[in-house]
Amino acid sequence: VVFHRDWAERLEVVRERATGAVTRAGDLLAADRVVLAAGSLSGRLAGVPEDVLPPVRPVKGQVLRLTVPAAYAPFLSRTVRAVVRGGHLYLVPRENGELVVGATSEELGWDTTVTAGGVYELLRDAHELVPGITELPLTETRAGLRPGSPDNAPLLGPTRLDGLLLATGHHRNGVLLTPVTGDVMAELLTGGELPEAVRPFTPKRFGPVPGALLEQTA
User: Fold this and answer.
1) Number of neighbours of residue 90 by Cβ within 10 angstroms
2) Predicted confidence band at 73 (pLDDT cuts at 50, 70, 90)?
3) 133-190: per-residue pLDDT in tens?
4) Strand partners, 61
5) Segments of 2-126 assigned E as strands
6) Which of 75, 112, 162, 214 could form an SS bridge with 68, CB 3.0 to 4.6 Å?
7) Same domain as 165, residue 132
8) Residue 177 and residue 22: Cα distance in Å, rounded?
9) Domain of 110, in residue numbers
10) Average pLDDT of 71-76?
11) d(Cα 104, Cα 61) in Å, to the nearest integer?
């Protein structure tokens, strides 16, 4: 395997078939099949026919990182997941003493601003689970964008364009579903068939989504 660590600028399409990708450096990387796995940007790759663009929208998520001082260790020994006030919350302790608290779920398009309200909500809800958490130093705040599909379930498998496959749309579960996504795509690429267990998640379950509509929802 040769890794090309560069930005994909455009899908190359020849005679109504995906044949590779053009990088930011201008290099054409030819391929018999192309897997589009660009997260929330999956619906924005140039060169993809409009009626084949993945119906993926960005879903904002704010995350906090706290430091657990030695005097407080061990603070948490395992990941905690809960639903507080109707929202999903997780607390993940790291071996380096960091504690990750996440994450908000906001339909705000491409906005990645960290807000006081988002930080407050996360700390408020985390405090309901573990009251001592508000005594920990706050070391980092971040906001990222998840890829959400119309039903917030993954898009896995062939598209209506020959040679183009999708592995995106995982919403809040991208990291959790990475191993099974890798297994599914490997089986599809080597065997030519989508495993039966994931056939409900084929991209073809949705009709063509015009690019203009994607821009509006974004």
Assistant:
1) 16
2) confident
3) 999 999 999 999 999 999 999 999 999 999 999 999 999 999 899 999 999 999 999 9
4) 144
5) 8-13, 18-23, 28-30, 34-36, 57-67, 80-84, 87-93, 98-102
6) 75
7) no
8) 28
9) 58-146
10) 85
11) 5
End-to-end CA distance of the chain: 35
Tokens representing 17 are 């078939």
Number of domains in the chain: 2
The 8 Å CB, 24+ separation contacts for 19-22 are: 19/163, 22/47
What strands lie across the sheet with 57-67, from one edge to the other? 80-84, 87-93, 98-102, 57-67, 138-148
Whether residue 97 is contained in a domain is answered as yes
Q: What is the rounded CA–CA span in Å between residue 100 and residue 32? A: 40
Residue 33, both tokens: 């099949």
Domain boundary among 97, 126, 146: 146
User: Full-prediction pTM beyond 0.70?
Assistant: yes
The answer to whether residue 212 scores a pLDDT higher than 50 is no
Positive/negative CA dihedral, 32, 37, 43, 46? negative
**What is the four-CA torsion angle of 103, 104, 105, 109, rounded to 10 degrees?**
-110
Mean model confidence pLDDT for the chain: 93
